[in-house]
Each structure stands twice: as C-alpha cells, then as structure tokens.
Amino acid sequence: MCKNLVTQLIYRVVLCVVSAFACLLSLGIFYIGVNGGNTFSWGFLKFYTNISNYFVLAVSIVVLADTVRRVRRGETEGYNEKLRTFKFMTVVMILVTFLVVIFLLDSPLHASYWRNIGNMAYHFLAPLLFILDYIFFDEKRTLSVLAPLYSLVIPLVYVAYIFLLGAIVPDFEYPYFFLDVNTLGYGGVLLWILGLLVVFAALGYLLWLWNRLYRADGKWKFDFRNILFPQKKGGAPAEEPSLNIEEEPSPKPETPSKEAQTEVPSETPEEK
Fold it and tell me: Which whole-number Å values give the CA distances from 236 to 3, 79, 84, in the listed order?
C-alpha cells in the first residue's frame, strides 16, 4: 500500500497514456490501408475487450484528475477517494478480459501474442496497470460485501447488448465463440454465461478479500466488521481497529467542605 500522492500521480499519468493508446488501437484507425483494410468499421464496439478498456480509461482519467487536484492543494498522502465501488467493478471487468484472453482466446506462450502491439496494449499492459493501481493505491476496508455482486451488472448488460445486435443486425458475427447462439444455441450460450458469472463473482470476492486484508502488529488480518456499509475513511491509513471501549473515569467522591465538616450543635430543649 502506497499512500504517497506524488507517486500515485506519476503512476496514473503512465496508466492513462497506456490506456489511451490501447483504446486508440482498438478503434482500428491505425490499421486502415493495412492488408487491404481501407475503410473504418464500427465492429470494435461489439468486443468486450474494447469496452472494458474504455471503462478503464474513463475511470483512470477521473481518478488522475482528482489526484492532480489533491497534489495541487498541497496534500502529500492519502488514497483514492473517487468512484471506489465503480472502480472496483471496472477492475473485475478488466481482470476477466485479461484472464479470458490468456486462457480461452490466446496464449502468451505463442510468440505472436507478444508481437501484436494490440495484444500488448489492451490485453496485457493496460489491464495489468489498472489492476495494480487498485492493489497498491486504494484504501483498505472501504468496499461493501455487495461490491462483487455489483460487478456482475456490466457483463450482463454486455450480453444483453450482444443478443440485441444478433437479433437486429443481419448476418451478425458474434465476437466470441461462447456467445455464438448460431453455433451453441441459446441453451449452450446461457451455460457459458452462468459459468463466466461464477468466475466474475469468484474473482470479485478475491479482490474484495484483498480490500479487507490489513497488516497490524506484524501480522496479516482480515477485518469483517461493517462489511455491508463500510465507513468512509477519507484516505486515512488502515490501522488495526480497536475493540476496546474506553470507560470514562468514575468521578472522585467529593470531599466535604469545612463548613459541612463543622457539626451543627443540637438544639437544647427549652427550660421549663
């Protein structure tokens, strides 16, 4: 965990530059005229990889702008305070992009994976830099236990979007084999979707556990208090929560004043 804002600022400038370059590559404008390609196509909008990279760039710009503002204001330490839950959802989104490309669609063991500048930018560098930004620069114990479930919303919207395109666009080419209803049918595609949602949720909760892991007294511990409604900490360093409630000291007994200590003479009975 690094709370130095200048370090975060430098890192996020690099992240934004790499992410912006990856997004430009995804548009295909650099490939016009290469291998017979001389027209611009909107096909890039159907790929989950590209859409997840656009989310990464948007969130990174917002977080960078806030970091710049805080540094200019004279702050030197702290953690990211902007779009915490939405940033977490985007981290899960791009992590799935990173893993699906490696294990299902391509292999880093092939030399072609590393020779392709697009693979390097939007499948490897931009996702990895964004994930590391979350790991090193986001404050601990600030995410709700529901955050991993929120991260399922974006993939489900994407699937509905692809199904809609498949229904209204003639001869639509599905971007991924596991979404191709023409080959797998809706039943086969739904099985893939359910499996991927389980993967999304599992990765989300692993990242959430990282957010709940902290170090105190030389030991690593998980803090599962306030997991539904975490308290906003505003960049304070994560320290071990105190479970002891300080008792107010009991008031000391008041010493009687001298007047009170003087005995009042009892009244003598009247003489007959």
Answer: 9, 8, 15
Which tokens hold the place of 66?
Answer: 């806030």
Query: Considering only CA atoms, which of 128, 160, 159, 118 is closest in space to residue 34?
Result: 118
- Rounded to a whole number, what is the distance in angstroms from the first to the last CA of the chain? 94
Tokens representing 27 are 């548009």
**What does the pLDDT look like over 70-106, one tens digit per residue?**
999 999 999 988 899 999 999 999 998 888 777 766 6
- Integer Rg of the chain from CA: 30
Residue-level length of the chain: 272
Tokens 């997991």 correspond to what residue?
A: 227
Q: What is the phi/psi pair of residue 149, to 5°?
A: -75, -35
Identity of the residue numbered 171: D
pTM: predicted TM-score of the whole model, two decimal places: 0.77
